[in-house]
User: Which sequence fits this backbone?
């Protein structure tokens, strides 16, 4: 047995010397084949029934038979040898540096205790890359024999490192291991009946019915899984992105990428439901035999750090104009495989817009101001008190325009994501009848200004009455003709 281990160790070291310097070999032999992964990093786990407490898986489970030799992927110092409970949970932690300073460390778990002793390992020992450190113990769950492999970062004495509950888990080992073969792209399933995605109110398990129009603050939920060379166990994909296309858009935005730090054990329990959805409708499950993963795509601020505050993020549909939008989801893995799927939804929001318009001076009766909203196209005319009221304006950016005869027009742009009360004051604007461009004189430029306004979507005269040369109450071609007659044919003077 010792001779075989020596031969395997020599082969393992040879591979390390010839491997890509930016990659690490697998911790089990042979390391050159695509390894079966039974649980992925960050994956939702919840064992032993509905009353279990979910948590994020802290490493990868490399599926190998009991007795498989384990080798150090990187040189370093033994920081801890311990069990977290059962005899099957012995582990070896090898850090990048000696002493009590902070360093990263590689943790090899479910190692046979006797094999660790036989390998001659003790806390504080220096370990070469490729050195044999023990073999995989038979796991307590039938047919789920594996090496659990994690990356942690910690500091302190030997006793500190032995306090296993305090270690932060800081990354996905698959980011470092080579080769990383995986022929299968992730699979995106329907999340809600026959509908690709599910939609609920932000942080509330209150779902929009299938095909319903959406509004308010919305969480977008997808249903997805992956295989990594092991077809008995679904795992989580390495990453998810989404984008929204329509009148307004959100470009491809990171939802979750499991290259991120998960934190210590306390946080992998607390933050698992930031990015996983687990309720009666979208019920994530992570047992050995029952696995379904629902991801809340919008519970992220776009970076790769998982934080509890991310749960407050969502799709604020009210900042989008009402209409149809295409939502696309991209799921991808380490090997470069990806799956993209999409669906179209309709959003509709409605908000009250009201206010009072006042006119410079003391006009008495304030009625007659025309208030328009664009692009909604809604219009209202103020009453005697100058009040206007719109019972339902679409969401998104809206332009509010106020016009009153003899006064300068006013406009402002609003983000209609809530009810607004906007009061405006219009200034008196004396004008010359026929001076459509407001230059202070009537000439050919006013004719050109009116033609541009009427037929080329140019700006309107301000006030509009300045262009109403024939005093008909409307701006049209007859006003152009009236000005031509006045300027060049001795016609009557404009009279607005």
Assistant:
């Amino acid at each position: 047995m010792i001779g075989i281990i020596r031969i395997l160790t020599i082969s393992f070291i040879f591979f390390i010397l010839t491997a890509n310097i930016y990659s690490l070999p697998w911790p089990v032999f042979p390391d050159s084949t695509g390894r079966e992964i039974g649980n992925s990093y960050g994956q939702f786990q919840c064992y032993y029934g509905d009353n279990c407490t979910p948590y994020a898986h802290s490493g990868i489970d490399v599926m190998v038979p009991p007795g498989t030799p384990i080798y150090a992927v990187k040189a370093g110092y033994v920081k801890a040898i311990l069990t977290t409970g059962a005899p099957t949970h012995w582990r070896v932690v090898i850090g990048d540096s000696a002493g009590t300073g902070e360093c990263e460390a590689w943790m090899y778990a479910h190692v046979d205790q006797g094999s660790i002793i036989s390998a001659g390992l003790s806390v504080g020992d220096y370990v070469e890359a490729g050195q044999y450190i023990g073999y995989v113990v038979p796991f307590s769950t039938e047919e789920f024999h594996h090496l659990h492999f994690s990356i942690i970062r910690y500091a302190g004495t030997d006793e500190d490192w032995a306090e296993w509950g305090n270690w932060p888990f800081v990354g996905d080992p698959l980011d470092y291991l080579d080769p990383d073969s995986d022929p299968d792209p992730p699979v995106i399933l329907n999340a809600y009946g026959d509908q690709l995605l599910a939609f609920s109110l932000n942080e509330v398990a209150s779902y929009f019915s299938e095909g319903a129009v959406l509004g308010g603050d919305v969480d977008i939920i997808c249903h997805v899984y992956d295989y990594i060379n092991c077809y008995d166990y679904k795992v989580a994909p390495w990453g998810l992105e989404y984008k929204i296309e329509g009148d307004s858009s959100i470009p491809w935005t990171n939802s979750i990428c499991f290259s991120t730090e998960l934190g210590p054990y306390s946080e992998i329990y607390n933050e698992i439901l930031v990015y996983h959805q687990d309720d009666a409708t979208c019920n994530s499950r992570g047992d050995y035999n029952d696995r379904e993963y629902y991801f809340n795509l919008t519970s992220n601020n776009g970076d790769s750090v998982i934080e509890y505050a991310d749960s407050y993020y969502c799709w604020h549909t009210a900042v989008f104009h009402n209409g149809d939008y295409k939502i696309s989801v991209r799921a991808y893995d380490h090997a470069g495989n990806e799956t993209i799927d999409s669906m179209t939804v309709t959003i509709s929001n409605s908000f009250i817009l009201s206010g009072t318009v006042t006119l410079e001076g003391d006009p008495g009766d304030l009625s007659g101001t025309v208030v328009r909203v664009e692009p909604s196209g809604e219009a209202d005319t103020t009453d005697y008190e100058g009040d206007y009221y719109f019972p339902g304006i679409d969401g998104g950016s809206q332009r509010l325009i106020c016009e009153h005869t003899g006064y300068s027009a006013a406009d402002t742009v609003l983000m209609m994501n809530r009810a607004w009360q906007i009061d405006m004051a219009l200034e008196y604007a004396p004008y010359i009848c026929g001076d459509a461009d407001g230059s202070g004189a009537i000439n050919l430029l006013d004719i050109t200004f009116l033609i541009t306004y009427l037929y080329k979507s140019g700006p309107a005269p301000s006030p509009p009455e300045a262009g109403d040369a024939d005093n008909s109450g409307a701006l049209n071609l007859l006003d152009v003709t009236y000005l031509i007659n006045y300027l060049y044919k001795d016609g009557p003077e404009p009279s607005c």
Summary: The chain has seven helices and 31 strands. Residues 2-33+60-171 form a domain with the Glucose Permease (Domain IIA) fold (CATH 2.70.70). Residues 1-22 have pLDDT under 50 and may be disordered.
